[in-house]
Amino acid sequence: MLLDGYFPETALDLEQRIGESFDVMVKGALAVDKIRSINRFFEYARNNTIGPNGVWVYFSIDGGTAWRSRIYNGMISYNNRLYSQFRRGVIRATIFIERDPFWEGPEQQIPLTNGNGTNNTSGLNVYNANDGAGSAPNKRNNYIEIADNAISGDLPAPVRLEMTNQFNSSARLSELWISHNVYSTPATFQHVIEGEAGIALQGGITNQAASGYSGGYVKDFVWSNSYQIPLVRFELNTAYLNAANKRWFKILCVFTSSVQQDIRLQTKIMFPAGSILTTVASSQEVLLSGARIQEIGEIQIPPWLLSSGDLAPVDLVIYGQKSGTANMQIDFLQISPLDGYRVLIPRGYGAAYGVRIVDDGINQQLYTDGWSEGGKTGHYTSIGKPLQIVPGKLQRIYFLQQGNTGDADIMRVLSVKAYYRPRRCGL
């Protein structure tokens, strides 16, 4: 029996666990056994601090929905009059707990939207390009959108993404890049820039029609220079800079084939637009591997001032360097916001057709299932923290997929579902 009520503390620091106590009356002939059971629960909590198994304290207001907070440690305390209390069958004790600084509500599925469906909960198709070609349910969009009223609570909450490989090919799904946009105008931000949109800065750089690639064209590069030179520029106009909102972005480059060895690329922001004059920001230089999808830099856009509304355009410029003749083709760039960023990488082979990859931020697990043999595997690893969705915000999550034979086929498709537990600081 709870004495005098339970009044949860409110966290001042969401990185620190909360310690609190409440008084109880333990009644009945087995009162001591009940106290021992409570102590066993605390031992279980100390040994199960992550994952779906654990101990929670539940709380509701006036019999409403019960919200939970995970317990990490605790003890039950009673005074030295325990024996006399035991003989009367009533023991007064104080329970001390150490718990999360927030409360979680019941798990909910998130309705998802893109060109292949609105508020979809059955599994939304997500392709490996965003040129908008085709029609629903097979329109080439590589994002899911979450409406601003879809996420409740008042704190960011981990999301569970369930991604089933629907690309019917012997080439398994291997690496998977996931990027989250909350604060860079998700509804309109142009996260994909086609290679053919770039303006060549050297001879030997041309647009080539190419079926099977995003937008139907690729940017073909042939150059020879052992020193770094500007290759191509992409103008970022005023509207683009304002939409980007001075956030940080990872530049992902999708190539049409395996890249030559010894090519180095670097992204820079140059001012004024149309003139290779002043470098105002630059990423690290990257030595490319042979992969089809590669990170070629991390950069802040715009590099100055916070969306003042009248920002002057700038250029995003790709510089290149290689000893001898260089050859490469770029299908498109993905300007990936870093409001959340995660790369899933298999140990060995990837996910076959029909296999589901589950990136479960709620229970801090990453696994696959749907194999013909049955059961789950944990053979995927991750770079980056699990994504956290934000209440009251329209947001998008972007996906890029690479096959285990090195392909980045634009027709690769995932069926995506998403779930979360709303979080609150208090009740």
Task: Please tag this protein with its features.
mainly beta, 427 residues, 10-stranded antiparallel beta sheet, single chain, 31 strands, 7-stranded antiparallel beta sheet, 3 helices
Structure, explained:
The structure is a single chain. This protein has 427 residues and is mainly beta. Helix content is 7%, strand content 48%. The chain is built from three helices and 31 strands.
List the helices and strands and how they pair.
Elements: E1 2-3, E2 18-27, H1 31-46, E3 55-59, E4 67-77, H2 82-88, E5 90-99, E6 103-104, E7 108-109, E8 112-114, E9 117-120, E10 124-127, E11 143-146, E12 157-165, E13 173-181, E14 192-194, E15 199-200, E16 205-209, E17 217-236, H3 238-244, E18 247-255, E19 264-271, E20 278-282, E21 286-287, E22 293-301, E23 314-337, E24 340-346, E25 356-360, E26 365-369, E27 380-383, E28 388-389, E29 395-403, E30 413-420, E31 423-424
Antiparallel strand pairs: 1-2, 2-5, 3-4, 4-5, 6-31, 7-30, 8-9, 10-30, 11-29, 12-25, 12-28, 12-30, 13-24, 13-29, 14-23, 15-17, 16-17, 17-23, 18-22, 18-23, 19-20, 19-21, 19-23, 24-27, 25-26
Quick overview of this protein structure:
The chain is mostly beta strands and 427 residues long.
